[in-house]
Amino acid sequence: MWWIPITLAAATFQILRTSRQHQLRSALSVNGAGFVRYAYGFPLALAIAVITFGLAGEEIPAIPWRFWPIIAGAGIAQILGTLALLRAFDLRDFAIGTVYAKTEVIQVAVVAAVALGEPLAPLGWVAAIVCMAGVAWLAAPDRLLDILGRAGDPAALMGIVAGGGFALAAVGIRGASTSLDGSTWARALFTLTVMLGIQTVVNASQLAATDRTELRRVGVAWRAALPVGVLSLAGSIGWATAVTLTNAAKVRTLGQVELVIAFAISAWVLHERHTRAEYAASTLVLLGVVGVVVFG
Questions:
Q1: Nearest one of 196, 200, 208, 211 to 28, comparing CA atoms
Q2: The pLDDT of residue 152
Q3: Helix spans in the chain (H)
Q4: Are 285 and 128 in contact (CB under 8 A)?
Q5: CA atoms within 13 Å, Cβ hemisphere of 244
Q6: pLDDT at 115
Q7: Does the pLDDT at position 194 exceed 90?
Q8: What does the alpha-carbon distance between residue 102 and residue 134 come to, in Å, rounded to a whole number?
Q9: Do 77 and 168 form a contact (C-beta atoms < 8 A)?
Q10: More confident residue, 96 or 212
């Protein structure tokens, strides 16, 4: 059951990374701020890989041919998911994009069942649906029925595409990692390092073709960007290790607890007021998460 604390740690690192990444928006574009996680995360991952496989003497996993297309697809799917989510925000508003992107919870369960033959148990499916409903409600507590009634909205469609991209990425990471031999740490680290390398090349090439000045800004902002890279890498290592250990659907569902953590911080630390609907939605998320962990 090590995947549970590892997933919770990854979710916490992701919250912290998102917070620091948001602060970069004063100096960088959305695309530039997103590139930071690859530009600064990949060199750190490469350094850890050199230490692990070089200095520490950990054996590099044997790599089957199918590893390469799977991990390349996962890395590109994650980038496309992020771009689709940002497009959803531009098309309409934050709430619509967020609600429909959270269909990732169900999409990752479907993709894992079809692609890897790892379906959830019947009660696990029910719990995943409960969790998704809670997440959607928490994202838009006062507008949920209105938003759900606009499923054909372009922002909603982009949100669903984003959720699909994140689902494919999560399942792809597990598929690539489990295709390798070796320890859990070696497989997760090697998989993550390769994926970050691919994402860095793809995202850097896109920026070089469309906005070269943004690449320079990413370098100039290194003091603010480096912590984002560190937090992003810590979170990514957690996600990669967790999906190496167990079903990606369980990991991504448990990962939704990050919303409840953020909600709790805003209520108890920042003393922000919340409605009964928001507390009810948080409860649904927790019930769904616990259900997937116990029955999934």
A1: 211
A2: 60
A3: 3-23, 30-39, 41-50, 67-91, 94-101, 104-115, 122-139, 144-148, 154-178, 184-210, 212-220, 222-245, 248-255, 257-264, 276-295
A4: no
A5: 25
A6: 83
A7: yes
A8: 10
A9: yes
A10: 212
Q: Which residues contact 113 (CB under 8 A, 6 or more apart)?
A: 119, 120, 249
265-289 CB burial, b ≥16 within 10 A, e <16: eeeeeeeeeeeeebeebbebbbebb
Length of the chain: 296
Q: Taking each helix axis from N to C terminus, what angle separates 222-245 and 154-178, rounded to the nearest 10 degrees?
A: 60
> Position of tokens 């695309």?
31
Q: What is the pLDDT, as a whole number, of residue 266? A: 67
Token couple for 123: 């009660």
pLDDT tens, residue by residue, 34-55: 788 888 899 999 999 999 998 8
Q: Distance (Å, rounded) from C-alpha 188 to C-alpha 143?
A: 40
As given in the structure block, the two tokens for residue 46 are 């490469």
CA angle 223, 217, 18 (to 5 degrees): 60
Q: What is the pTM of this model?
A: 0.85
Tell me the HSE value of 240 on the side-chain side, using a 13 A CA sphere: 27
- C-alpha 80: how far from chain center: 12
d(CA 233, CA 241): 12
Q: Given this model, what pLDDT does residue 46 score?
A: 94
- ∠ CA 53-198-117, nearest 5°, is 85
Specify the DSSP class assigned to residue 2.
T
Q: What residue type is 99 in one-letter code?
A: V
Phi/psi-derived region of residue 287, left when phi > 0, alpha when psi is between -120 and 50, beta in every other case: alpha
Lookup: tokens for 103: 């269909």
Is 85:101 a contact under the CB 8 Å cutoff?
A: yes
Alpha-carbon distance of 42 to 198, in angstroms, equals 9
Residue with tokens 């998460």: 289
| Most distant pair of Cα atoms in the chain: their distance | 57
Q: Taking phi first (over 0 means left), then psi (-120 to 50 degrees means alpha), and beta for anything else, what does residue 272 get?
A: beta
